[in-house]
Structure formats: structure tokens, C-alpha cells
Amino acid sequence: MNITIDREVLLENLNIISRGLPSKSPMPILTGIKFYVTENDLFMTSSNTDISVEVTITDSSLQIVEAGSTVVPGRLFIDIIRKINSKKVNLFLSDDKILIVKADRGEYKLHIMDPLNYPKIDFVPLENPLTLHSDVLKSLIKETVFATAQTEKKPILAGVNFVNSNNELIVTATDSFRLSQKITNIREYKDFNITIPNKSLDEMLKALDVYDGDVNLYFTQNRLLAQYRNVCFQTRLLDGSYPDTSRLIPDSFPIVVKFNKDELVEAVERVSLLSPRDKERDKEIAYSIIKLSVRKDRTIEISTNNTVYGDAREEVIPTFVDASNPITIGFSSRYLLEALKSFMSTEISLNLTGEIRPFVIRGEKDVNLTQLILPVRMD
Hints:
Layout: E1 2-6, H1 7-17, E2 32-37, E3 42-47, E4 51-57, E5 63-66, E6 68-73, H2 74-83, E7 88-94, E8 98-103, E9 106-111, E10 130-133, H3 134-142, E11 159-165, E12 168-174, E13 178-185, E14 192-197, H4 198-208, E15 214-219, E16 223-228, E17 231-236, E18 255-260, H5 261-271, E19 277-278, E20 287-294, E21 300-306, E22 310-316, E23 320-322, E24 327-332, H6 333-340, E25 347-352, E26 359-363, E27 369-373
Antiparallel strand pairs: 1-5, 1-7, 2-3, 2-6, 3-4, 4-17, 7-8, 8-9, 10-15, 11-12, 11-14, 12-13, 13-27, 15-16, 16-17, 18-23, 18-25, 19-20, 20-21, 20-24, 21-22, 25-26, 26-27
Helix pairs in contact: 3-4, 5-6
């Protein structure tokens, strides 16, 4: 193998490939990046068993002197390419044991691994895609993935559920204490119900990053492949049935309070500095508990009581209040802040049904986005 390529082109594709590299692996070969060079193309592959990524480089700057294949130490190789300053990079094998990286006056020698030991990656066949624009796909991920469970107690909740029913794509995430749901209409496509791991979606989001264009999605029973430009990003799907969350969202709300989103975020951030941590409900999750009170005079107060550090309370001026009775409701400030930051709208509404019943957050411009939070008992 002997190639020369523009460093910027190589680094751009390595940044995508890095999404499939494990931080550690029981299979040392998977910590490497597989290079496969034909007479015309360069293929690079990474995999951590959950995620597999392959890029195909046909750039005009790619000069192939000799075809071949190898596996290079992944993160070390990326760090080298990132640090060097030369415009061109020459990569070639010496005695099939060493990869030599030549860049201007610099030369780096890396011990390589046998490509025959690299597991064969079977990518989903590229047939009958569901095509979404990258902006739509990135929004679906950003507005939901944060609400997934971060522990493996209920593995299915560590993923985002994608359901297509009559060309209405319903994307849902929940960790049992909150729920995020985004609905969007898609072109005519077969119905499906899949759950994608949250870590895979986080890496997909990073891989897409600045890409602006269509993404083709291909499915099998246990895998999803996202293909765009010269990239194939594949992830396993979670096994099991995702819980039915359709009945969690109330149909009507006796109390509706609207706020300027940024003003509410700033007030919650200030008050939550003194909020106590409640670990009783789940020892692995810390809740920053605050209270929101709608008074008889329709003023709104956010407060918290901390026996160790002190108390905080702040009045927030709403843009609209519809409430027949006063109410005080407690909840995690972190959950509220993460939910609020998922909205593009400048005005949001808190829709309440009772002190111990879930409340819903919606935005004036985010018509198909719903955030739901389970309150905390204040007894």
C-alpha cells in the first residue's frame, strides 16, 4: 500500500471514522482503522461492534501508487494527522509490518495490525431507503436523545424509539421520569418500529455535524444504516418492545402559563444553584429539585429550600396565565432546562394538570415537539 493524499481531506474523513472507534475493546484489532486501497479508491473502516463506519475516498488529491490493506492504531494515527502541518501526506507500508507517514520533513513509523484479523463488517443492503434531509434528522436526534435513560436497568429506555405509522414519523425518548416526543410527516414509506441506542445517535449527530443534504436510511430487523455523501454509518438496534407512551400525555390542561423562554431559563439556572439533591428515587440519578408556584394573583414564583446552604426564590413575569386555582409543583430543574433548550421558540408554555401529575412543555413555533416531566412529591 502506497498513497498520497491531501491532509485536510484525510483528516475530515478520519474525524467521521473516529465515531466508530471504541475507547477500549476486548478485541485489540477494533481499536484500529482498517485501510483498504484499490486501484482507484481508498476505503477506511472502524467498528466497536455497536457502531460501524466506512468512508470511501475518491478525491482528486488521492494518488494511488500501490494497492493494499492494513490496520493502523486508530486514535494515535488521527492525532498524528491532526498535529502535522503539511499539505500532503504520504502513507506506505514497509515490509508489511510498519506504516510510514511522511509529511514534509517529518516521518512517523507506526506498528500495524494484520488486516486479515479484522472482523468482516456486513453493511445493510442499500435497497429501498427512507430519505430525510440532514437538518430534519439532526433535529429529531437533538430534541429527543437527551431524555433517554443513562443506565442499563431498562435497556430499551437507553434508546430513542422511531415509529412510522401512515407516513407520520413519531420519535420518542423517555427515562421513566420525563418524555420527549417529536412528530414529523415523511414521504410514503412502509410502517416500522425501531429503537436506536442513544450512544449511536450521539455519534451519528457528530458524524453529520456540518453536513447539509439528504441522508438515506436503510433497515433490517436488527440494524440501521445511514448513508450520505461518501459515508456509511451503521448501528445495531435495541431488542424488545418500547413501552406505549401514548397515554402519558394529557389531552387538556386546566392551568397554562406562558413565558419568554430565555428569561425562564435564566431564572431557573439561578434558583437551581441552591437546589438540594434528591437521590431517593434512583441512587444513580441526582435531581436538582425546585418548585414553581402559580399564586392567586397569577404571579409566578420559582423557589428552592436547602437546609445546608440556604434558600432561593425568584418571581418570573409570565407572558400569559390561565389558571383558576393556585398550584405549587416540584420537579428537577435539570430536566426542565434540558427540555426548554430543545425548543427553537422564543415563547414556551407550561401546561399543568395537577401538583403530582406530569406537566407538558410546548413552544409556539415547535408545533410537533412535546416535552413532558414527572413532578416530584413535595411532602
